[in-house]
Amino acid sequence: MPANRSPRSTLVRRGMAAVAALPLLTLAACGYGSKSADTSANQKVAAGAKKIDGLDSVKIGYFGNLTHGTALVAREQGIFQKELGATKADYATFNAGPSEIEALNSGSIDIGWIGPSPAINGYTKSNGKSLKIIGGSASGGVKLVVNPKKIKSLKDVKGKKIATPQLGNTQDVAFLNWIADQGWKVDAQSGKGDVTVVRSDNKVTPDAFKAGSIDGAWVPEPTASKLVAEGGRTILDESTLWPGKKFVITNIIVRQSFLKQHPKAVEAVLKAAVGANKWINANPDKAKAAANKQLEADSGKALPANVLDPAWKSIQFTDDPLASTLNTEAQHAVKAGLLDKPDLKGIYDLTLLNKVLKAEGESTVDAAGLGTS
Question: What is the pTM of this model?
Answer without folding.
Answer: 0.86
